[in-house]
Amino acid sequence: MPLSLEVYRLNGTTPEPITPSGMDEESRLQDILADRIEIIDQDLMVVGREVQTPWQARVDILAIDSAGHLVVIELKRNQTPREVVAQALEYGSWVIGLDNAKIAEIYANYLQRYHPSNVQESLDEAFRKKFRIVIPDELNEDHRLLIIAAELDSGTERIVEYLTQHHSVPVNAIFFRVFKDGGQEYLTRAWLREPDEIGEISPAQEIGEWNGEFYANFGHSADRDWEDARKYGFISAGGGEWYTKPLRYLKPGSRVWVNIPGHGYAGVGMVNGEVRHVSDFKVNGQSFLSLQPNGKYFVPATGNVAESSEYVVPVDWIHTVPVSEAVKERGFYGNQWTVTLSPQPKWQHTVERLKSRWGIKDNVVAP
Question: Residue 97 is part of which domain span?
Fold first, then answer.
């Protein structure tokens, strides 16, 4: 069934429905999303708008996430379900061939047309400013497709579900509706499938295929320092629930392989405790923050636990290397999520290669 969303004005205890009005123009929605891409996903940065393809069609919005993966964002407009999905897939077939130089060129054209005052800013600089990490050496190792609609019809929903569930196509759909209440407008958003349904795979769904090993990103920066993590035994994330929520998948006894975006894999260890706020993390009975670590590890000035706070998972390291010795090979697995697991052959290959390079011979059974 198509997704539906209703908004009510509360007049005392009586709910009064507010009628959706629709956008005045589709271009207005594109402007809103391009200017505030975090409405879709806070882990996205716009790198192009109205991007020209070889067959004269234009990609509405092209974005990149913190793992360097591209995201095609296409507005449905008045197309039929078959047309909009076919167009998104066609764009995906083009995007998959974009290399680093072409992506940088697209970003430069985007700045020149839409943000001329920032035309001197490189893609590397913008990426570092947005995500607070160094841009990966290899971009576009994976991509996603997002269909944006004012209303989501049953045909589009059916096709998207079929592609994701039976063919593992990374496509999702979002619908936005506008509700007017007097002189005030409200924009609402709903996903066809929650993003973590696309980005994360549970062991129950992939029993017998997942190798029992967890993947984690560690955003080495001024906010968190890899040498701190090596010395005191932890991985961490901050900046909002999108980054910190996946840490909960790590349980005591889980083995985790840590990738530093832009550098490579730098450690493997066994989780020895539950996720916790950084202010509650202790090392040999002493508060971690009192040890004067290199990183900032954000804690709200009020002392309250805020969504943007740093969260920590304690780890007993099996093997680590400095950032300068991080291991990166073509064909290694990468993902935008802070923590994930995967049945993909690329992930299995990555783990086996790291075991070989670091002399780790044991096998791990999924917890």
Answer: 7-199
Q: At what angle do helices 154-167 and 81-95 cross, to 10 degrees?
A: 40
C-beta of residue 313 within 8 angstroms of C-beta of residue 254: no
Full DSSP string of 115-126: -GGGTT--HHHH
Sign of CA dihedral 219, 222, 223, 224: positive
Q: Could you tell me the CATH number of the domain that includes residue 241?
A: 3.10.590
Among 169, 171, 170, 173, smallest CA distance to 149 is for 173
pLDDT tens, residue by residue, 137-147: 788 988 999 98
Mean pLDDT of 12-32: 75
88, 74 in Cβ contact below 8 A?
yes
Q: How far apart are CA 159 and CA 155, in angstroms?
A: 6
DSSP tag of 194: -
**What is the rounded average pLDDT for all residues in the chain?**
84
Which residues pair with residue 147 across a beta bridge?
A: 74, 173
Assigned domain for 249 exists: yes
**pLDDT digit string (tens) for 293-346?**
999 998 876 555 556 789 999 999 999 999 999 999 888 888 878 998 887 788
Amino acid 201: pLDDT? 37
Question: Rounded distance, CA 257 to CA 235, Å?
Answer: 10
Both structure tokens of 80:
């039929």
Which run of H or E residues covers position 61? strand 58-65
